[in-house]
Write a structure and sequence with these properties.
This protein is mainly β. Helix content is 0%, strand content 22%. It has no helices and eight strands. It has strands at 19-21, 26-28, 36-38, 44-46, 51-52, 62-63, 68-69, 79-80. The strands form four sheets. The protein has a two-stranded antiparallel ribbon with strand order 1-3. The chain is elongated and about 50 Å long.
């Protein structure tokens, strides 16, 4: 199953014995117990707007701090607001 259109590089991992980390901008929907997934058991989920995952294998996405934003699903990092602007954070 692929959530939010996120699919790991299955071509590079074609064995059910292979494990790999969810890509940047995603996290593994596994209650944070294991941040790697097994081939063909895809459970990587894209980060929601306002959050980001800057490391592969994340167990959760980080909420952007005040003064930063992520306006797209699957953000790798939060972007700093322009001078004189902020977020509700």
């Amino acid at each position: 199953m692929v959530d939010n259109g996120v699919e790991p590089d299955a071509a590079a991992h074609d064995s059910v014995l292979d494990c790999w980390s969810c890509p940047l901008g995603t996290y593994q929907l596994d209650n944070g117990l294991n941040a790697t997934i097994h081939a063909y058991e895809t459970s990587c989920v894209a980060c929601e707007k306002g959050t980001a995952a800057s490391q592969s294998g994340s167990a959760a996405c980080d909420i952007c701090p005040p003064g930063f934003y992520a306006d797209k699903i699957g953000a790798v990092k939060c972007t700093k607001c322009a001078a004189g602007e902020t977020t509700g954070g």
